[in-house]
C-alpha cells in the first residue's frame, strides 16, 4: 500500500498535467469518469494516502488501497485492467486496482491538513492531544490511525517503533512523556527520510527492522507477528523494544 511519501512522488511526477485539459477518459470504473473530459486540472494535492486531482468545482480522490498502481505515459500490459486513464495533450495518467471517488465539497471542509505528516500544516500538539484520548490503544495501532498520523503505513510504523525503542503492543497511556514525544516526532521525520530514500531508490537499504530477520544492533532474532486491530505485520526486537504497560 503506497504511503504518504509515495504519494508525494506521484504528485511530483504528474505535475506536468496541472493546468492541462483532459482530452479523453477511459477505464472500467463504475463512477461517472467522463465527468472529467474537457475539464482542466487545477491542482494536484495529497492527504495521507489520498491523491487528489482538483478541477474547478470538484475533485477526484484516488486511493491506491493494497494493490493499486499508476503509470505515466505508458500502460500496463494485459491482463491488467485500466481503472482510469486520463489523456492530455502532453501525455497520459493511468490508474489500476485503486478506489476512485468524487468530492464535491471544498477540500478544506473534507480534510484536516494538520494530521497529514507530510503537510506543512502538520500539528504535533494536535497529535499529542488525540493520543492522550486513547490511553489503551497499542502503539502499533496508534501509528496507523489515519486520523492522527495520516500518511503513515506499515513499514513506517515498524521502523519508527524500532527507532524509538518501543514494543508495538505498548499502551499509549503507559508511554513516558519523552517516548510519546519521540513517537510523534519520528512519525513525521521517518516519513521525510523515507521520501528522500525513495527518490534516491535506496529505501529498502535503510530498513533496520521491516522485513528483516535479525536485530540491527546485534540482539539476535527479530519477532514477526500480526498485531493490533488491523493485524498488520510487525517486526520488532524484544530486547531493544521493551513493552510499556
TrEMBL record:
It catalyses: Hydrolysis of DNA containing ring-opened 7-methylguanine residues, releasing 2,6-diamino-4-hydroxy-5-(N-methyl)formamidopyrimidine. Residues 2-103 form the Formamidopyrimidine-DNA glycosylase catalytic domain. Keywords: DNA damage, DNA repair, DNA-binding, Endonuclease, Glycosidase, Hydrolase, Lyase, Multifunctional enzyme, Nuclease. GO terms for molecular function: damaged DNA binding; DNA-(apurinic or apyrimidinic site) endonuclease activity; lyase activity; oxidized purine nucleobase lesion DNA N-glycosylase activity; zinc ion binding. InterPro entries: FPG_cat, FPG_N, H2TH_FPG, Ribosomal_uS13-like_H2TH. One of its GO terms (biological process) is base-excision repair. Belongs to the FPG family. It holds the Pfam family Fapy_DNA_glyco. This is Endonuclease-8.
Amino acid at each position: 500500500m503506497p504511503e504518504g511519501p509515495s504519494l508525494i512522488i506521484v504528485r511530483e511526477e504528474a505535475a506536468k498535467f496541472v493546468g492541462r485539459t483532459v482530452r479523453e477518459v477511459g477505464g472500467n470504473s463504475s463512477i461517472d469518469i467522463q465527468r472529467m473530459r474537457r475539464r482542466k486540472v487545477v491542482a494536484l494535492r495529497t492527504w495521507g494516502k489520498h491523491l487528489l486531482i482538483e478541477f474547478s468545482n470538484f475533485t477526484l480522490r484516488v486511493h491506491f488501497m493494497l494493490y493499486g498502481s499508476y503509470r505515466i505515459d505508458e500502460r500496463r500490459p494485459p491482463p491488467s485492467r485500466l481503472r482510469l486513464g486520463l489523456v492530455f495533450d502532453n501525455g497520459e495518467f493511468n490508474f489500476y486496482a485503486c478506489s476512485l471517488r468524487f468530492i464535491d465539497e471544498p477540500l478544506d471542509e473534507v480534510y484536516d491538513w494538520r494530521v497529514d505528516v507530510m503537510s506543512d500544516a502538520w500539528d504535533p500538539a494536535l497529535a499529542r492531544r488525540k493520543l492522550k484520548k486513547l490511553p489503551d490503544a497499542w502503539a502499533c495501532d496508534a501509528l496507523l490511525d489515519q486520523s492522527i498520523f495520516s500518511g503513515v503505513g506499515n513499514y513506517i510504523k515498524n521502523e519508527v517503533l524500532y527507532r524509538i525503542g518501543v514494543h508495538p503492543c505498548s499502551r499509549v497511556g503507559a508511554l513516558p512523556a519523552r517516548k510519546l514525544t519521540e513517537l510523534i516526532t519520528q512519525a513525521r521525520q521517518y516519513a521525510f527520510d523515507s521520501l528522500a530514500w525513495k527518490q534516491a531508490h535506496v529505501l529498502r537499504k535503510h530498513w533496520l527492522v521491516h522485513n528483516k530477520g535479525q536485530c540491527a544492533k546485534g540482539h539476535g532474532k527479530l519477532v514477526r507477528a500480526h498485531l493490533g486491530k488491523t493485524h498488520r505485520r510487525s517486526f520488532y526486537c524484544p530486547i531493544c523494544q521493551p513493552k510499556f504497560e
